[in-house]
Structures are given as structure tokens and as C-alpha cells.
Amino acid sequence: MEDLSLHILDVVENSIAAQAKKVEIRVHEDVERDLLSIEIKDDGKGMTEEMVKKTLDPFFTTRTTRRVGLGLPLFAQAARESKGTFAIESKPDHGTQVHATFQYSNIDRKPWGKMTETLITLIVGNPDVDFYYCHQKGNFEYILDTEEIRSGLEGLPINHPTVVEAIQGNVKENLGMIGIS
Ligand SMILES: Nc1ncnc2c1ncn2[C@@H]1O[C@H](COP(=O)(O)OP(=O)(O)OP(=O)(O)O)[C@@H](O)[C@H]1O
Ligand SMILES: [Mg+2]
User: Fold this and answer.
1) Can you spell out the DSSP letters for 79-101?
2) Superfamily name and number for 4-176
3) Which ligand 1 atom lies nearest to the CA of residue 42?
4) Considering the entire predicted model, what is its pTM?
């Protein structure tokens, strides 16, 4: 996986597989402290301590279609390779939180890739899940809150083409201000 946006997509897909109804994605680009932080939190079915330990082992997966679960080990590796950190906290029946940090300027720190596409893919494919996305960089802050958007739609589904187009335009315009597509 080449891009942070694809790692985020993968981690959020784990949340959805765990029946999450709300997923919060918090991104902080702290250029002054040379630190990039990505936090993904869900209210899905969670994991026991033993399961959490196993998630970092690439030979553990509860998927039946493939034997090897690589999403989390690869994300952890991406963080480590750029002098960052990686942590998972989880509680059965409560949810899971994944936190990765990266040295911002590190030559091995992966680029963002297509963050708009990741968000739109998640919203279109999971219209019943609420996504809260917060992206901070210096004085810049962008928040996309599908719960708030939904409340203004008067019953129109959030994955209606007109709505999706509007959301996509909004994300593109805002993240474009900090050079992310
Ligand atoms: N947010 C989560 N909530 C509950 N369980 C999780 C969560 N994230 C991961 N898991 C558990 O950890 C396992 C490993 O996750 P990981 O993303 O590394 O691999 P995978 O999703 O099984 O396969 P891949 O990501 O390679 O398609 C999952 O199969 C699941 O059992
Ligand atoms: Mg996965």
C-alpha cells in the first residue's frame, strides 16, 4: 500500500466489518513538531486483549476468504518505517481505537494519496454508518460530519448522486487548500 489514504480506508473497513455505526477519523499534521497523527475510533464490537495482540501478527485474521490479515500489520509497519508509533486499544462490545504517528518530514513517510476518494468510497458504500472526519494542519481545520449532513437532507439518502457530488466537491475544495487530493 503506497498511500496513507488507502491505509485509512483499510482500517475503517475493519470498523465496518465490526458492525460500527460511527467511525471517527482524526488527522493532525503538526509540522512544527514534525509529527503526523492519524486516529481512527469506532463503536464496533471490539476485541479482547488477546485478539488485539494477535492483530499485529500477520497470520491472524477472522476473515474466511483469505488466511492472512495484513491491514493492521502493514499500517503499523508504515508508521514504524517513518520513526512513528502504532497502538491499538479495544474493548469488547465498546469499540476500537487505532492510533498511528509518523515523523512528518521522514523520507519514508507515505504521501496522502486520494483522501477524497477514500472518504467518498466509505460514505457511498456505507450509507447507514456515520463518519466524522477531522483534519487539522496549523490553523487549518476541516470537519466532515455525515450525521450533521444527514440531518439537513430531509430524508434524501446520503448516497444519492446529487448529495455525493456535493460532499465530494466540498472535501476536494477544503483538502485542496492544504495540497491533498
Ligand atoms: N476495528 C476493529 N474492530 C474489531 N475487530 C477488528 C478491528 N480491526 C481489526 N479487527 C480484527 O483484527 C483482524 C485483523 O485485521 P487486519 O486489518 O490486519 O486484517 P483483515 O481485515 O483480517 O484482512 P485485510 O485487512 O488484509 O483485508 C480482523 O480480521 C478482525 O478480526
Ligand atoms: Mg483489514
Assistant:
1) HHHTT-EEEEEEETTTEEEEEEE
2) Histidine kinase-like ATPase, C-terminal domain (3.30.565.10)
3) 1
4) 0.95
